Amino acid sequence: MTTTTAPPELESQPGRLNRLREALAIVFSSRTAVVGLAIVIFWLAIGVISLFWTPYPPNAQLFDPNLPPSAVNVMGTDHLGRDTWSRIMAGTQVVLLKTRLATDPRVVIPGGVAIWGVIGAVLVGGLLGVNAGYRGGAADQVIMQVLDAFIAFPVIVLYLVIVTALGRGDVIVILAITVTGAPGVARLVRGLTMDIKTHDYIRAAETRGESKWYVMLWETLPNARGPILVDAMLRVGYAIFAIGTLGFLGLGLPPPDPDWGSMVNDARKYIYSNPLAILWPSLAIATLVIGVNLFADGLREEITRYQR
Amino acid sequence: MLDVRNLTVGYRTRKTVVEALRGVSFDLQRGEALGIVGESGCGKSTLGWSVVNFLGANGFIREGSIRFEGEDLVGRSDQELQQLRGNRIAMVFQDPMQSLNPSLRLGEQMREVLTYHQQMSTEEATTRCIQALERVHMPDAAGVLDRYPHQISGGQQQRVVIAMALLNNPSLLIMDEPTTALDVTVEAAVLDLVAELRRTMDTAIIFISHNLGVIARICDRVAVMYAGEVVEQATVQQIFHAPQHPYTQGLIRCVPRLGADKTSSVLYPIPGRVPRPDERPDGCLFSTRCQYVQERCRHELPALRQMPGNAWVRCHFAEEIDPAEWTPPPDAEIAPQTPPPANAERLLCGEHLKKYYRVPGTSLASLFGLGEKKFVKAVDDVSFVVRKGTTLGIVGESGSGKSTLVKSIIGLESIDGGVLEFMGVDVRGDLSKRTLETIRELQMVFQNPDSTMNPAYTVGQQIARPLERFKTVPRGQVRDEVVRLLRAVRLNRTYYDRFPRQLSGGEKQRVGIARALASHPDLVLCDEPVSALDVSVQAAILNLLLEVQHENNTTMIFIAHDLSVVRFIADDVAVMYLGQLVESGPVDAIYAPPHHPYTEALLSAVPVPDPNANSTRVRLEGNAPSAINPPSGCRFHTRCPRRVLMPDGGKRCETEAPMNQDAGDGHVILCHLPLEVLRHLESGVMQAGM
C-alpha cells in the first residue's frame, strides 16, 4: 500500500492531547451539550469556591431566622438564621466534590456522593452485565432474573429499606444509589456485549485461548465505553435527584453540613412565612440535574451520529 | 432515451460538500443494457440513484442534466418524480429481503404498484401480477401472491422484486448489484432470467455491479467508473478484449480466471486504493495508481475522448498504451510460484466428523423436554486430510456447513462424533480442552475486515497481544517483531500506532493476517478472507497469502464461495453440500471431469469475465433443503440435474445413500452415477475458463 500521500508522523501519533481535542470537538459540535456543560461547570466552580470561601460560614447562626433576601443575605436566611446562599454554595460539595467516610467531618475523600454512587452503579452493573451478555445461558438467566427482581421494586422503597437497615451517612446513600442504578446499567451493558460478542475480533481472542475475563474486560468493555459514559452522565442527574429526595424525606446526608434536599425539607415547614427559602435549593437541584442531562443528551446525539 | 450530460452529484457533510460524481455523461438507447463497474466508493450506486433523483437527505445534483424520453429530470418536484419512479423507471436493489415488506403478503405489495400508478381494479391487477410472475418463471405464481416474503427463498424473492419492477412495463430498469447477496447457483439463475428478459422486452437496463463476470454476461456496453468519473466507456467486447484505460486493464488483470491455477497464472493487483473524495489528486484521478503516469497526468485532468470504434476513454496517452506490452512493475506483489510439496506428512486429519446442533422444538411437549429431539446436521460424516504446506479449499453454497467445519477445527465448537487429529494430537474438544501449544499452532483469518480488528486498540497493540500471550519472542523484542510482521504483510512501521478506523478494508485484512501469523502457526484457517474486498485488493491479499505460505511453509484451509479464487489458491479442494463432502481431491481433478453433478452445477454457474464465454448451462432449481430434515438417500437428489441419467430415473437416489467412488489420485466423488457417465458429461467449464 502506498503511504506517500499522508504525512506519516501526523497520523501515526494519535497522542493523548489529540484524543482529548477530538473528544472536546464532539462536545462543542452540539449546542445542547455545550449548554449542559456550562451549567455543570458553573456548579462545579461554585463548589470549589465554597471549599475556600463562602460569604458567611454556612453552619453559623449569625442572623435572624427567615429573613427575606437583602443586600446582606442575597437569598435571605433559613429557620435557624443561617445564610441561605452560603449553604447552597456549600451544598454543592457533598453532591459533587467530597464524601464524608465517617461521622468525623474531617475524614473525607474527593468526589461527591452522586459521583461515587454512579461509579458504584456502573462498576457493579457493568460487571454483571458483561458477564450475563458474554457467558449467556444459565449465567445470563440467573443474573438478569435477580436484577429484574430489583427493578420490580419502586426505587423509593429500596432507598427506605437500605437507609432503615443500615442507618444514615454518605456511604449509605452511595450504596443506595449503587443498588438502584446497577440493574439499569447491567441491562445496557448486557445488550452492548451481546452485540460486540458477534464481532470477529472476539473470535480472534477466543482462538488465542484468552480467558473469559480477559475477553470481557479487555476486548469487550472498551468498545462499550461510549454508551456507558453517556448513561453514567444521565445517572449522575438521577443520583442528584435521589439525594434531594432522601434529604427531603429526612433520610439523606447527615447534618449539620448543608444538603439541598434537607434544605427544601426544612424550608417546607415555613413555606407561608418565608416562601422564597424553598425556591433556592429546589432551583439548585433542578438546574444541576438539567445541566447534567443536557450534557449527556448532547453527547449521546453526537456519539451516535459518528457510529455507523 | 436516457441522456445524462456532465452530471455532478454532491453530498453535504458537516464540514464540506463531497463530490461523489464528477462530470458523468452517458446515453442509453431503448432496449440497451449498460453495465457500470468499478471498485467500491467509485460512485456506481450514486449514479443509479441520481437518475431518479433519489439521493437521500444530504445528496443533491450540482450540475448537469438528465434527459429521460426528452424531458429533463433535474429540478423536478418530488411528486412528479414519484410518479416516474415505479412507473416508467423501476429499480432493483441488492438485498431482496430489504426491498420487500415482511409484514405484507406478496400479492398486496405487487398489486399496490398497479393500483397506485395506474388506478387498476384489484382483479385486473391480480391477473397482471400472475402474468408478471410467470414471466420471471416463478413456480406456482398464483399461490405465491398469498405468501409472505419469508416463505419463499432468496432467489425467488429477487424474482418477485424483478417481476414487481416490470409490472408497469418501465422503459428503464436500474439494477444495483441485484445478485451480490445471492449464492452462486441462485445468481446464475437470476442472471439467466435478466438475460432472457432483455431478449424479450425493450426495456433499457442500467446494470450496476462490481463483478466483471456478471457484467460480461448481461451488458451491451460498459462504463468503467473510477473515483466518481467515467474513465472508459465502450462495448462489452472492447472492454474485455481491448481495454484502453490503464484502470480497466488493471481490473481485468487482477481477476482470477476459473481456468487458471496458481502454477499457470499470476494475479497482478492494482497498487494503492481509490482516493477518498477529499484527497483526490489534481490531475488525472488515476494518476496515483497508474503505472504509465507521466508529468502531464499529475496536473491536467484528461477529458473523456472518443477513440476509434466508438469507445470513450479518459486518458492522455490511451493511444500509446499497449496492454500486450505490459510488464509488471518491479515492486508488484506477485505470488511466488511453487509446486505443492509432494508426499508431505499429514498435518490435520478428520474422519467421519459430525457436528449437530440441537433445535428447540415448537410443540408443548418439547417445552417440558419431552418432545422429539431435532438436530441440524451442520457437518455430517466428513473425512479429509490436510498435508503439511498445502492448501485445502472448501467450497459450497451458504448453509453447506463449511463455516461450521472450520469452527470445529479451530475449537470454537466441540465435535460431536468422529476423529480429528492435529499433528497426532486429538483435538475433538473445544478451546477450553486444548493446550496452549495446540492453540498457538491453529490460527484464523476472518471474513469481515470491519470486524476483524478491535476498534479500541492500535494495530501494534493487536499484533503484539498474541506475541505476548504465546511468548513467541522475549518481552523486549515484541515491538521489533510486530514491525517485522507488519513488513511481512507489506505495511510499513507507521501503521504501528494507527487505529483500525484509519485503515482501508484491505489494510485491515493484512493486519488480520499478521495477527494470525504472530504465533507462527502450522495451520491457518481462512474463512472467506477476500469475499468482502474489492477485486484489486483481493488479488493483493491472495498473493500475500501465497507468499506467506511459501516463506513459512504454512498449511492453510481456505473457505470461499468463489470457485475461481479457490482454484487459484488451493492444492486440494473439498466440495460441501448440506453438511457432506460430495467431492474432494486435487485441484486439477476437481476442475476437470469427472465432476459430481453438484460441482458441475457450481462450476457452470460461475460468471466468467469474458463476453464470448459459452458455458454449458447446468442450473439448479431452488435453494438447498433444510439441514434439519435432509433429503433421504443422496442429499442432492432433490436438485440434481443429472439424476435422469440413472437407469431407473433416479429412484435409487431417493432411497439409498451413495458411496464414495474413487476416481484415482485421491479424487473422490459421492454419487451413484458411474464414473464413466460422469466423465463423459460435456463440461463447459474448461472451455469457458481458458
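The first strand of chain A starts at residue 98 and ends at 100.
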